[in-house]
Amino acid sequence: MDFVMKQALGGATKDMGKMLGGEEEKDPDAQKKEEERQEALRQQEEERKAKHARMEAEREKVRQQIRDKD
């Protein structure tokens, strides 16, 4: 009977434990991947803020030029 069940389920036997409420296999590199993802998000946020500051400085420069013309 076990043979028939394994044939019927194919490669899904590993996932059956999870579906039935068993322990989920943990990725050994999950912590490292999460830290890398968080670092990438921080870096993107810093780059976005720097870009925003540069754009605002350029806008202020144009505003000042307009004020000086009058």
TrEMBL record:
InterPro entries: Synaphin (IPR008849). GO terms for biological process: positive regulation of synaptic plasticity; regulation of neurotransmitter secretion; regulation of synaptic vesicle fusion to presynaptic active zone membrane; synaptic vesicle exocytosis. Residues 15-70 have a biased composition (Basic and acidic residues). It is found in: Cytoplasm, Cytosol; Nucleus; Perikaryon; Presynapse. CDD domains: Complexin_NTD_CPLX_I_II. It comes from the Eukaryota. One of its GO terms (molecular function) is syntaxin binding. GO terms for cellular component: calyx of Held; cytosol; glutamatergic synapse; nucleus; perikaryon; SNARE complex; terminal bouton. The keyword tRNA processing does not apply. Keywords: Cell projection, Coiled coil, Cytoplasm, Exocytosis, Neurotransmitter transport, Nucleus, Synapse, Transport. This is Complexin-2. The keyword Transferase does not apply. It comes from Macaca fascicularis (Crab-eating macaque). Binds to the SNARE core complex containing SNAP25, VAMP2 and STX1A.
